């Protein structure tokens, strides 16, 4: 951003919004919005509490487990769908339905199926992430240069060799793109799961804060979550740019 | 010695042993009849061009010989053995290069050897040798997107040479490179045919290119494709690369082929 000829560092407009928040908070318009300064002070207090760290740990655990399941199942399924017409016809409608479905509505069912706890949250996370990973891996395999496949075949590549030396690498840029979007969705999944199953992680924490009208605490944790999600997304975008540098060149 | 020279200069098709025989090949793509009852012999150690207008089935025939496509009927023999799929006796050079963009030159060139289970160090030594032979020394660690079209096709050529197949199948290998590079390629190809003792099957739609590089030219006509005519240029092959293009026979053959093909060009 450039103001009066001065180049301001990225996101400096956030200062303006922070100032506005502070003013609204100090004006005491609503108990719902405490001043930003109070929120920030609370934030550093909250970070040290056992309750917060337990919530963070549980969330990280559910997130990592859910994302790992989504990746380990999603990529092979996507690649196989891209290669097999039959599998594609069987699965594609479901993948498309679930991709656009309001998965939040499924969480109560998952609670019944997997119990009122961690397992249901992990499954929710996986369900949020997996569909786009499948679709992208499938698209990656389908766009593969046909003569590259013929090349591998003409030099005597076995099906296994073709899979690991050609298909996987050729589809890698799309696969990584899918994993990135999948992980961003998984962040939503893990939080939504916890909010609905409000005895675990941040769900429990939010329940505690809102039941006691601790709005500063509430905002502090929210800011932490937003920052975490944003950092993860930016980090993945950075990785994707580095690994798939050749994608534009093929 | 003089006898051998004579044989090369005035080849008699009947006296030449075939490396590849195409027998009564037909190929249909659904309702499209691409090839009908096509038969052709490819003499060992020589370069045969498949020449014809676009869409007349040259690529189809080459891929059937490569074992990448199944013919609807008919059969292919390479060195007396029936072709049932791709094999180590044939190597393919692709029109669009078909290089792995994520792999550097040395891995691309060594790919065929990698598929045959040749250990890494041996594979890289062989690959390096062929990279040098096609004039790409110093580019071993480069990636395809860092190379020009002509250099990429040299990588494709080195990859095909590295597996030391007896038959080289080339599908319009020079059509995607610029004119100057193309001429250099054509000269290099003549040297390769002379030194490598391999059988080359070379697809092109350029009449001049076919006459310049070929020992034998099979002219294919479209819909459904068949061999219209086989031409064996004889006198200018050994006059040196610089003289071929002004040799009277070269010019005559170019004219003769154009006369055959012109009615098929709309
Ligand atoms: N996979 C395919 N499916 C249907 N038709 C095809 C296919 N490949 C080639 N053809 C048709 O077969 C004919 C010959 O094609 P091709 O062998 O590529 O010709 P050329 O290489 O001489 O240009 C063309 O008419 C083309 O449209
Ligand atoms: Mg073609």
TrEMBL record, chain A:
It is a multi-pass membrane protein. Residues 56-234 form the ABC transmembrane type-1 domain. GO terms for biological process: transmembrane transport. It is found in: Cell membrane. The keyword Transmembrane applies. Keywords: Cell membrane, Membrane, Transmembrane, Transmembrane helix, Transport. Belongs to the binding-protein-dependent transport system permease family. This is ABC transporter permease subunit. It comes from Halovulum marinum.
Automatic annotation (TrEMBL), chain B:
Residues 20-247 form the ABC transporter domain. The lineage of its organism: Bacteria, Pseudomonadati, Pseudomonadota, Alphaproteobacteria, Rhodobacterales. Belongs to the ABC transporter superfamily. Keywords: ATP-binding, Nucleotide-binding, Transport. InterPro entries: AAA+_ATPase, ABC_transporter-like_ATP-bd, ABC_transporter-like_CS, ABC_transporter_ATP-bind, P-loop_NTPase. SUPFAM superfamilies: P-loop containing nucleoside triphosphate hydrolases. The keyword Nucleotide-binding applies. It comes from Halovulum marinum. Signal peptide: none annotated. GO terms for molecular function: ATP binding; ATP hydrolysis activity. This is ATP-binding cassette domain-containing protein. The keyword NADP does not apply. CDD domains: ABC_NrtD_SsuB_transporters (cd03293).
């Amino acid at each position: 951003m450039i103001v009066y000829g001065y180049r301001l560092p990225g996101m400096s407009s956030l200062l303006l919004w922070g100032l506005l928040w502070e003013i609204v908070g100090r004006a005491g318009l609503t108990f719902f919005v405490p001043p930003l300064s109070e929120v920030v002070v609370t934030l550093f207090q909250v970070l040290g509490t056992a309750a917060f760290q337990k919530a963070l740990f549980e969330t990280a655990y559910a997130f990592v487990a859910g994302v790992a399941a989504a990746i380990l199942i999603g990529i092979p399924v996507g690649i196989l769908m891209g290669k097999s017409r039959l599998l594609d016809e069987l699965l594609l409608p479901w993948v498309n339905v679930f991709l656009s479905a309001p998965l939040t509505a499924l969480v109560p069912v998952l609670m019944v199926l997997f119990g009122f706890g961690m397992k249901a949250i992990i499954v929710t996370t996986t369900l949020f992430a997996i569909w786009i990973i499948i679709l992208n891996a499938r698209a990656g395999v389908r766009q593969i240069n046909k003569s590259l496949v013929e090349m591998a075949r003409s030099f005597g590549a076995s099906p296994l060799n073709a899979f690991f030396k050609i298909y996987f690498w050729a589809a890698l840029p799309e696969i990584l793109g899918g994993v990135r979007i999948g992980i961003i969705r998984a962040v939503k999944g893990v939080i939504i799961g916890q909010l609905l199953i409000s005895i675990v992680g941040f769900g429990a924490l939010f329940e505690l804060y809102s039941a006691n009208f601790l709005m500063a605490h509430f905002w502090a944790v929210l800011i932490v979550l937003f920052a975490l999600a944003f950092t993860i997304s930016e980090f993945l975008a950075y990785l994707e740019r580095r690994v798939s540098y050749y994608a534009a060149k093929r | 010695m003089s006898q051998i020279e004579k044989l090369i200069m005035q080849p008699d098709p009947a006296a030449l042993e075939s490396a590849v025989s195409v027998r009564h090949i037909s190929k249909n793509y659904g309702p499209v009849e691409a090839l009908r009852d096509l038969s052709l012999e490819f003499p060992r150690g020589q370069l045969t061009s498949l020449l014809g207008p676009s869409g007349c089935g040259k690529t189809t025939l080459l891929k059937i010989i490569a074992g990448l496509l199944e013919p609807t009927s008919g059969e292919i023999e390479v060195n007396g053995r029936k072709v049932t799929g791709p094999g180590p006796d044939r190597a393919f050079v692709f029109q669009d290069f078909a290089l792995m963009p994520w792999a550097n030159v040395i891995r691309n060139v060594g790919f065929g050897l990698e598929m045959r289970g040749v250990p890494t160090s041996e594979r890289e030594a062989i690959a390096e040798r062929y990279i040098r032979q096609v004039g790409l020394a110093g580019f071993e660690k480069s990636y395809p997107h860092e190379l020009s079209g002509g250099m990429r096709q040299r990588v494709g050529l080195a990859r095909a040479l590295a597996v030391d197949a007896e038959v080289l199948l080339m599908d319009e290998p020079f059509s995607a490179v610029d004119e100057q590079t193309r001429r250099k390629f054509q000269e290099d190809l003549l040297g390769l045919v002379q030194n490598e003792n391999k059988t080359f099957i070379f697809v092109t739609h350029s009449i001049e290119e076919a006459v310049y590089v070929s020992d034998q030219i099979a002219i294919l006509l479209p819909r459904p494709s068949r061999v219209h005519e086989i031409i064996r240029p004889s006198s200018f092959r050994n006059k040196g690369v610089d003289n071929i293009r002004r040799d009277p026979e070269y010019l005559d053959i170019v004219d003769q082929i154009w006369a055959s093909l012109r009615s098929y060009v709309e």
